[in-house]
User: Which sequence fits this backbone?
């Protein structure tokens, strides 16, 4: 069995990032789009941790903590916006909210 | 060694399978449950990478905090109608183009052989490792990264105020 190296973690991170990107681009439900953004942020975190381990540097883990902080803030505000949106438009489909579309 | 590899593949499978199911399920509640599986897999990967503090943060904050928030909002917002509608918009070709670009990039380096995947080795000698992971994270976070830490607290304050303002009926 091939020993697990940093490259393996990077490959996993790429796969997770692509799945998240596909989710953001193709889904209509805003809740699922927000979940896909969480997937993308997790892919970034895997990357940071893997490089931090590679270079025996704590900066990777610190940056991952900050990424998680931003993810929390983003999820809270995004879900708040979603509730306000649902109250006004009665829909959670991203392509039905097209007030600014010409 | 083989135990390490086995755990890596188990957690990687959890992460990827959970992610795929998150993106493809019709019901948002099912998506959320599968996202929890995916996040648990990522937490296991943190543990394998000797990031014990982040493992705990992932479990407590992501699975205990963000996912509960998601499920709360799913309960508040009526998604029964949305689950019956069309789930995907007509933008699959954009997503496929993104995947194709990254795939071409990876394929190019794959063709260049294993030398392209070799990472630079650290030039510095390994620093003396003292204390546990949490202790070291705290040491660095509260000395070198003190200013970003304070700015993050301001960001969280803005997020608290912003989400309350957004979700309130009238201000």
Assistant:
């Amino acid at each position: 069995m091939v020993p697990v190296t940093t490259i393996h973690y990077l490959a996993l991170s790429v796969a997770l990032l692509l799945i998240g990107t596909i989710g953001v681009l193709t889904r209509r439900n805003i809740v699922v789009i927000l979940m896909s953004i969480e997937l993308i942020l997790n892919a970034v975190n895997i990357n940071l941790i893997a490089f931090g381990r590679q270079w025996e540097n704590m900066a990777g883990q610190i940056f991952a903590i900050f990424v998680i902080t931003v993810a929390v803030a983003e999820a809270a505000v995004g879900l708040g916006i979603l509730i306000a949106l649902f109250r006004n438009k009665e829909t959670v489909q991203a392509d039905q909210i097209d007030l600014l579309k010409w | 060694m083989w135990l390490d590899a086995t755990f890596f593949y188990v957690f990687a499978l959890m992460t990827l399978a959970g992610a795929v199911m998150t993106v493809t399920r019709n019901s948002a509640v099912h998506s959320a449950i599968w996202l929890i599986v995916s996040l648990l897999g990522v937490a296991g990967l943190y543990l394998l990478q000797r990031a014990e503090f982040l493992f705990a943060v992932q479990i407590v904050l992501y699975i205990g905090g963000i996912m509960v928030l998601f499920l709360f909002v799913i309960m508040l917002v009526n998604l029964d109608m949305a689950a019956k509608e069309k789930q995907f918009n007509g933008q699959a070709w954009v997503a496929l183009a993104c995947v194709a670009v990254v795939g071409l990039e990876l394929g190019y380096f794959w063709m260049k052989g294993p030398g392209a995947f070799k990472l630079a080795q650290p030039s510095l000698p390994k620093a003396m490792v003292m204390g546990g992971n949490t202790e070291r994270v705290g040491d660095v976070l509260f000395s070198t990264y003190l200013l970003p830490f304070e700015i993050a607290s301001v960001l969280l304050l803005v997020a608290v105020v912003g989400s309350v303002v957004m979700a309130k009926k009238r201000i």
Summary: Chain B touches chain A through 82 residues (CB under 8 Å). The radius of gyration of chain B is 21 Å.
